[in-house]
Amino acid sequence: MFRAVALRAAGVLALLALWWAVAAAHLWPPVFVPSPGAVWHQLVQTSTVHDGQRGYAGHLLAEHLAASLRRILLGSLYGVAGGVALGLLIGLVPTVRALLGPLVTFVRTLPPLAYFSLLIIWFGIDETPKTVLLLVAALPPVAVATADAVRGVHADYLHAARSLGAPRWRVPLSVVLPSALPEVMTGVRVAVGVAYTTVVAAETVNGVPGIGGMIRDAQRYNQSDVVVLGLLVIGASGLLIDAALQLAERRLAPWRGRS
Amino acid sequence: MKLRPLPALAALTALGLALTGCASGTGAAAGDSAPNADGTPKALRIGYQAIPNGDLIVKDQRWLEQALPHTKITWSRFESGGDVNTAMVAGGLDIGLAGSSPVTRGLSAPLNIKYKVPWIFDVIGDNEALVARGATTIAALKGKKIAAPFSSTSHYSLLAALQGAGLTESDVTLVDLEPPDIQAAWARGDIDAAYVWTPVLGRLRTTGKVLITSRELAAKGKVTADLAVVRTAFADKYPKALTTWLQQQDRAVKLVRADKAAASAAVGRQLNLPPAEAARQIDELVLLDARQQQGARYLGTAQAPGGLAADLHGAAEFLTAQHKIPAVPQLSVFQQGLAAKELGDAFPR
After folding, report:
1. pLDDT at position B326 over 50
2. Are residues B196 and B242 in the same domain?
3. Residue A227's pLDDT is what?
4. What pTM, to 2 d.p., does this model score?
5. Tens of pLDDT along A147-191?
6. For chain A, what is the HEC assignment?
7. Do B181 and A125 touch (CB under 8 A)?
8. Do the chains contact at A125 and B111, CB–CB below 8 Å?
9. Smallest Cβ distance to A27: which of B23, B176, B187?
């Protein structure tokens, strides 16, 4: 345990040292490799009100992050709900599988930026197109994982439930879904990860406040230190969210890997 | 997961090698290679934008290729001056086109790009304008939602227009949108006004009212322009090539004046527009020939740098107020940023 923690800390420190060394060596101009000090300075600047300017582009860093997390949460929630429902249908009903299976795969391979301009025309420039984009991005991984897990449920479970007198309508929710839960949870983790990477695309249009909007704005003014800060914030919060989901997975499906 | 130390170390070393490899790659930029036997550069890398000015005529007519037959000329299209700045910092371009706003940023700290302005492609006129629905004066926009592509010349002009009407940024809701998104948002009724350029401006004008154009703002002293930037190292090493380049640009402006049909056909070919529409778009810009650019209002002469330096200085004040650059540089920084001497060498009086 201690060894694992120490190794991780050493890894982070080594990367930091490498970054510092590269920046200090001035191999490239600061626009290419901003120094850790400059990024730290931006962290302070974007988190405080200074000379009448509130954070970055009128919002504090925490507000940018909160706006993005809210979009991710909403998009993932809708995406997971839709994905589980769709996955159950695809896994249980062969006709639906034949009808929708290829469609889900098709949507899954579309890059978000390719169809985002359509969402803008359909849903405007405010929150709706962003939520819809994240939904479309988050739904397929959950649907695919659920469908596969549902089809992999042991036939003995179904037979046992039926012979113990369970009515046909109860089987999907009481037997199939719990049995498929570990794989579904993996799908959810993948989906939230996809939503997280997609939020930057979603915030290319009217994305301030939002961490992706902040990065994009900084990029246009060649403020690389703010860009790096945004990336670090996204990475760190992504790690935290994934840890929370792993915890939820262990709580919800403690039998994982023991059956 | 356990990391074995040896492979991890190997990976780090590989990363380090890759990084230093990149570094030497950046240093040996293609444009810095030895010149041809006749003193012309081996390569000339140009960053252009899809703006209906003389640059597209030079490109279409292949005048540069004919004037510099031993030079490999690469034309790369850019969508914004910010990207041109990035390419300049990376040493990937010799001559580029950027708006006055990005050039101001490039000449100021922290970027401090080593480039100069040898030519004004065009002064922005009626091709950028503020269009509104349900408002007939700029002051009536108070509390409304206005879109503009941030960091562009339009953004600068919009804030100058608001300021002129006694409004501040906080009196309105500003939305950062690219032109195609502005068109979509306008069609849906999501925005009340927009400061944008053609061709989207044309679509908005059919259902909205033009409140002010960049030509009118320029008359009030808020000039925006599309500028050429040349890498200082390139200008110093190949003054003759720069002279040739400047002469072709002047030739293009003169072609627009002498033979509009030929000029608009060339621009139309480059922008996939019918010649009549190209001609209309060219007319919305203010094109200046070399003599006019040498005037005191624009680039001036080596002894007396022109008024463009003051325009860039004004833009720097605006960017500082926007917290986009840390401080306003001295006026002399922008005066030195004008390649008036090079222009004078190319067109001696």
Report:
1. yes
2. no
3. 93
4. 0.81
5. 999 988 888 888 899 899 888 888 888 888 888 998 999 999 999
6. CHHHHHHHHHHHHHHHHHHHHHHHCCCCCCCCCCCHHHHHHHHHHHHCEECCEECECCECHHHHHHHHHHHHHHHHHHHHHHHHHHHHHHHHCHHHHHHHHHHHHHHHHCCHHHHHHHHHHHHCCCHHHHHHHHHHHHHHHHHHHHHHHHHCCCHHHHHHHHHCCCCHHHHHHHHHHHHHHHHHHHHHHHHHHHHHHHHHHHCCCCCCCCHHHHHHHHHHCCCHHHHHHHHHHHHHHHHHHHHHHHHHHHHHCCCCCCC
7. yes
8. no
9. B23
B291 belongs to a structural domain: yes
User: Please, what are the domains in chain A?
Assistant: 36-47+60-252 (1.10.3720.10)
User: What integer pLDDT is reported at residue B32 of this predicted model?
Assistant: 55
Sequence-distant (6+) residues with CB within 8 A of B319 are B101, B104, B105, B108, B325
Which range (A168-182, A201-215, B102-116) has the least confidence? A168-182
Task: Give the number of other CB atoms < 10 A from CB of residue A91.
Answer: 22
Asked, for residue B22, whether it belongs to a domain, the answer is no
Residue to substitute from B17, B20, B156, B323, interface A, most A β-carbons within 10 A: B323
- B23 in A contact zone (CB under 8 Å): yes
B135 and B110 within one domain? no
**Strand partners of residue B64:** none
A206 touches chain B (CB under 8 A): yes
Antiparallel, parallel or unpaired: β A49-50 and B72-77: unpaired
Please say if the pLDDT value at position B12 is more than 80. no
Tokens of B245: 């380049």
Q: Give the Cα separation of A86 and A139 in Å (integer).
A: 9
pLDDT (average), residues A32-44:
91
Check whether residue B66 and residue B164 sit in a common domain: no
How does residue A81 score in pLDDT terms, banded at 50, 70 and 90? very high
Looking at B194, B219, B244, the residue that finishes a domain is B219
Q: How many domains does chain B have?
A: 2
Same domain as B205, residue B243: no
- B66 and B112, same domain (yes or no): yes
Mean pLDDT throughout A194-213? 91
Contact: B82, A217; criterion CB under 8 Å: no
CA distance B124 to B106: 19
What pLDDT is attached to residue A253? 82
Kindly state whether B6 is in contact with chain A, defined as any CB-CB distance less than 8 angstroms. no
Would the CB atoms of A18 and B185 count as touching at under 8 Å?
no
Q: pLDDT tens-digit profile of B217-240?
A: 999 988 999 999 999 999 999 999
Residue type, B169: E
Residue B105 contacts A where some CB pair is shorter than 8 Å: yes
Task: Choose the final residue of a domain: B177, B192, B219.
Answer: B219
> Is B239 part of any domain?
yes
Report yes or no on B331 lying in a domain: yes
* Complex ipTM: 0.78
> B264 — contact with chain A (CB < 8 Å)?
no
Residue A115 touches partner B, C-beta closer than 8 Å: no
- Percent helix, strand and coil across chain B, each rounded to 5? 50, 15, 30
The residue segments making up the domain with residue B215 are: 128-219
